[in-house]
Amino acid sequence: MIFTIEPIVLVWLLGLALAVLGGFAGIGRWLLAQYQKRIDDRFHLLAEDARAWRQAERNLMDLRAHVTENYVMRDDYTRNQSVVEAKLDALAAKIELLQAQAAPARNPNGH
């Protein structure tokens, strides 16, 4: 028993197969486009994130420059304060010495 296919049915089946394959190809292209769009969106977000990090780094460098120009470290402040206090103590000692030397000269009879 041999099947005979009429040419019109063969053309119809061939057209149907081409339509199905075309549909699959269209769905495949759509899926690839969606995948590409998702990748592009991720790269865009990464680029924005990189710009934000660069801006944060610039702000940090500006802060470091500002801090070094306008603030003194605690150890430096303590050292400088000690030097100033030592100089004031030496000056006070000299003033007391001069006052002690001048006191007998002003009052020769001891009163």
Descriptors:
single chain; 111 residues; mainly alpha
- Sheet with the most strands, sense and barrel status: none
Tell me the structural class: mainly alpha
Series of secondary-structure elements, N-terminal to C-terminal? HH
Q: What is the residue-averaged pLDDT?
A: 91
Strand content: under 5%
Distance between the termini: 155 Å
* Share of helical residues: over 70%
Report the radius of gyration as a whole number of Å.
Answer: 47 Å
Number of strands: 0
- The DSSP helix count reads 2
Q: Which residues form runs of ≥5 with pLDDT under 50?
A: none
Shape: rod-shaped
Overview of the molecule:
With 111 residues, the protein is mostly helical. Helix content is 87%, strand content 0%. The chain is built from two helices and no strands. It has helices at 7-70, 74-106. It starts with 6 loop residues before the first helix and ends in a 5-residue tail after the last helix.
